[in-house]
Write a structure and sequence with these properties.
Elements (H helix, E strand, L loop, with lengths): L10 H7 L3 H12 L4 H13 L2 H8 L4 H7 L3 E2 L20 H13 L9 H16 L7 H14 L14 H4 L3 H9 L16 E5 L8 E5 L4 H6 L6 H4 L21 E6 L9 H10 L11 E3 L9 E4 L3 E2 L3 H8 L27
The structure holds FE2/S2 (inorganic) cluster.
The site of FE2/S2 (inorganic) cluster (FES) has 12 residues, from loops.
């Protein structure tokens, strides 16, 4: 249960605000079996890109601008500013206008006395969208979950405007199986490719909806190093964090958190997470897992031995310790002997520069 203010909200927004990070995590786990393979990783990556706990920290902050500075947030982190664009990497984005409209209708007709579980409501809205759009429900479940979370963070008001589908016709026409085949495909290394070792070349796709959004890199190079060779665009103009190539980088040593990416396809072709990457990515707040090949990685640490498809989040920061300290506050009834972070200076004890 969250402590978000409930006044001036609709009954459905109040229902959503009763669901914190743990409830959402359980909901996504339940929904995963109903999400098509093409969107299984993508849907989970989206929820890592727009964490509810960080949104709630800002909702309760006395001075959000100061908090953003203290957490070293850079780029476009508020979900409310990217309602129609945050999820273009999900296959289900193709049905966003229908999903957005159906979720808005669901919210306005919501009756708290008849409320079912969050996952049941998401599945029910997804089935309705699928029926109207004549597609399999599995293709819209992930995007419907994204829409529910978007409403929780941005409110019902932003759902009144019609949604936009932002793909060109060529990409919108691709079938889910075609997308999965493209993700699985490795570069041919030529007739004598089996003799090659470090001179193998791999393609990294960083936007599946843009034919030109690819770069080539050497075998066993890290993803960020390979990206730095891509000088095909004025990257700084597109995003000031992109100092060299499409992936934002700073330290190149797992110290700053600038280079995090989601891995849509080919996660098994990346090197295992080494101890430093595993430790730092938790401190940054991006993902908390002991899996050797998670689908959230630091591009300056993940080396590839095959073609991969990644998605680059629009922001970065260092907030893991801060959010953990909020969970441990006595005010929420949880005893803590380890005051990790000074709330006035959330980074006071972070070793993010080490
Ligand atoms: S560039 Fe700093 S963590 Fe990768």
């Amino acid at each position: 249960m969250t402590t978000t203010e409930t006044s001036a909200k609709t009954p459905f927004e109040n229902f959503l605000s009763e669901h914190g990070e743990e409830a959402w995590s359980a909901t996504i786990t339940t929904l995963l079996r109903s999400i098509h393979d093409v969107d299984k990783n993508a849907a989970q990556i989206w929820f890592y890109f727009f964490p509810l706990s960080l949104f709630e920290a800002f909702a309760h902050a006395d001075d959000p601008e100061l908090l953003a500075q203290q957490l070293l947030l850079r780029g476009n982190y508020p979900l409310k500013d990217q309602i129609d664009t945050s999820h273009t990497f999900l296959y289900g984005h193709r049905y966003w206008p229908e999903v957005k409209s159906a979720v808005a209708n669901h919210a306005t007709s919501f009756n708290p006395a008849e409320a079912r579980s969050l996952s049941d409501q998401i599945l029910s809205v997804a089935q309705e969208v699928a029926r109207k759009s004549k597609v399999d429900p599995s293709l819209v479940v992930g995007t419907t979950a994204v829409a529910f979370m978007t409403m929780q963070q941005a409110g019902l008001g932003v759902f009144q405007a019609p949604g936009k589908m932002l793909l060109d016709k060529k990409h919108a026409r691709k079938s889910p199986d075609q997308v999965l085949r493209e993700r699985a495909k490795d570069d041919s290394q030529g007739l004598l490719g089996f003799l090659k070792t470090i001179d193998k070349k791999w393609t990294v796709t960083y936007d599946e909806n843009d034919e030109a959004a690819k770069y080539r890199m050497n075998n066993i190079q890290d993803l960020a190093w390979g990206a730095a060779n891509d000088q095909s665009r004025n990257w700084r103009e597109i995003d000031p964090r992109r100092s060299e190539g499409p992936i934002p980088v700073e330290c190149r040593s797992a110290s700053c958190g600038t280079c995090w990416v989601g891995v849509l396809g080919g996660v098994e072709k990346l090197s295992d997470v080494a101890a430093r990457e595993g430790k730092k990515i938790k401190e940054f707040g991006y993902i908390d897992t002991a899996e050797p090949k998670p689908f959230i990685r630091l591009a300056c640490q993940a080396q590839t031995h095959g073609a991969v498809s990644i998605v680059i989040p629009p922001w970065n920061g260092v907030f893991g310790k801060y959010l953990r300290s909020l969970k441990q506050t006595p005010a929420e009834g949880v005893e803590s002997n380890a005051p990790v972070v000074n709330k006035q200076d959330p980074l006071a004890s972070n070793d993010h520069c080490n």
